[in-house]
Write a structure and sequence with these properties.
single chain, 246 residues, mainly alpha, 11 helices, 0% strand
Length: 246
């Protein structure tokens, strides 16, 4: 969770990291990121804006429904579109696009941090997206290197094949419905891990309660033993006083 929270808290426009800041500095950085995002969004072409809106809307729904498949699929599609834009020679558009989706992650970091606890697939996707280069000076080579090498394995067929547009909300929903088997497997594994974590947490809490009970019982036994010993010692002391006339 800490790793995810750190990745989602975008501290600069190029996905880099900075030393810990005061709350005032942090607020300034967040305001700056928001302004950069608004500027980037306004400069994107309409197709890219629509794509961002449709995919982030699906991601919002997936987070609210705690739908592992929807979240994994949408995050993978978001990152793959960045890759596709770069490969099509649209590096400037890709950096603006990345700024917009990073801002979305930043705005939803609390939901993502809670939702992705113990979910390594989503944690890796979020971290990867959070570190996509967004600087105006980004080269095609730098942009390509930043993308996960196996991201296309989780992307829906149309996106994995090179598409960079998702024209409607219905299309965005269908991308999730038609997600590859790798997404379904990852979602199942995530659900299993979450269930195991919950079971382990419950067992740990039960064990802690038992230990506390044992501790209290032992404390009472020790107190009773000490009282009994004190009583014996007191009686012995009195007996000795009588014998020696003290």
């Amino acid at each position: 969770m800490a790793l995810i929270a750190a990745a989602i808290t975008l501290s600069s426009c190029n996905g880099g990291t900075k030393p810990a800041q005061s709350s005032q500095d942090s607020t300034s950085v967040n305001d700056s990121v928001a302004q950069d995002s608004a500027s980037a969004t306004s400069q994107m072409n309409q197709e890219t804006k629509t794509t961002v809106d449709n995919l982030t809307s699906q991601l919002t729904s997936g987070l609210k429904a705690k739908d592992n498949k929807a979240v994994i699929s949408t995050l993978a599609n978001l990152e793959t579109i960045y890759k596709n834009l770069v490969e099509q020679g649209k590096v400037e558009e890709a950096t603006k696009y990345a700024t917009a989706i990073q801002q979305f992650l930043n705005e939803h970091k609390e939901e993502l941090t809670t939702f992705t606890s113990g979910n390594t697939t989503i944690a890796q996707l979020v971290t990867s997206i959070a570190n996509l280069p967004t600087a105006a000076t980004t080269t095609a080579e730098e942009a390509k290197k930043a993308v996960s090498t196996d991201i296309v394995n989780l992307a829906s067929k149309a996106i994995a094949s090179g598409s960079t547009t998702v024209a409607t909300a219905e299309e965005a929903a269908n991308l999730i419905k038609n997600a590859p088997a790798t997404v379904k497997s990852a979602a199942t594994a995530a659900a299993t891990a979450a269930a195991a974590d919950a079971e382990n947490a419950a067992a740990s809490k039960a064990n802690e309660a038992v230990e506390q009970t044992h501790k209290k019982v032992n404390e009472k036994v020790n107190q009773a033993s000490q009282k009994a010993a004190d009583k014996v010692n007191k009686a012995a002391s009195k007996a000795l006083d009588k014998v020696f006339g003290n």
